Known about the structure:
The chain is mainly beta. The protein contains 2 helices and 26 strands.
Amino acid sequence: xxxxxxxxxxxxxxxxxxxxxxxxxxxxxxxxxxxxxxxxxxxxxxxxxxxxxxxxxxxxxxxxxxxxxxxxxxxxxxxxxxxxxxxxxxxxxxxxxxxxxxxxxxxxxxxxxxxxxxxxxxxxxxxxxxxxxxxxxxxxxxxxxxxxxxxxxxxxxxxxxxxxxxxxxxxxxxxxxxxxxxxxxxxxxxxxxxxxxxxxxxxxxxxxxxxxxxxxxxxxxxxxxxxxxxxxxxxxxxxxxxxxxxxxxxxxxxxxxxxxxxxxxxxxxxxxxxxxxxxxxxxxxxxxxxxxxxxxxxxxxxxxxxxxxxxxxxxxxxxxxxxxxxxxxxxxxxxxxxxxxxxxxxxxxxxxxxxxxxxxxxxxxxxxxxxxxxxxx
Length: 377
């Protein structure tokens, strides 16, 4: 007879079906009464690494026979409630005629396997409780094969060093998944995995946010996420911020050199084209100043900056006027706009003149046509 509910029945039931129903019933009754049918059930257990596992053996019709619990290596852990193996992680927490339960603390993947619940009667029978251990992944790490340079590509690898089963890895940017090349490695009891992506980069991508997510059944729907920001290297750009208005003798000049680059250039160089810098020039990083300007300071000033990826420069032409000089200021309206307006006005006047002349000529022609008619009468 097949076991009932994964139970081992320690009574022998007739295999062939007898033609005499009464005989069959009598045999069953005798077998299940003397001795009583005994059964043991074992429950499978799944636990997280480092947690506590409860291994239970359920008894049916227990008559005081010997109960033995063994580990996957067939070492006896408990003999009728008495510890047999010196491993303090195992504790007998319950021993009753219906239920025997032990606990295993600080579970590791090496504790996996089948735990035997044995009930010794005339014949030894057992049931196996399978212990499965899940190992959740740690937060993944990001490895960069080479630095990202403007106009090139960057290769990023997301690594999950250890889990069981293998973690699922995916790259996310701006809410969208970036497909990666996935690989896994079996390390015996655990797995390691990686996902590699290659993406083109420009300077606008510097500081862009990406994330690598690790999904695993042991996380209960949550994710382990590693955030990463792109570090894109590019040559500098330089722009001199000029002063407002007209500069006259005695005024002060202040120029600011605005530099952008990655890495940001540390040294900013000021110079004067075809000449040396004035004695009164003061330089403080990106700022260049001259107090009490004179016409001898006129010329073109240059700001230069460089990093490992390039060099850039910008220039400013200084023109210092006499204190009493009358300087025409540029209109706020561009000359092209003014010219366009004047051209439109001239065109409009011409059109009006053409229409006026055409109407006048037409009117005179009408008068000439009517004169012969008047003469006839």
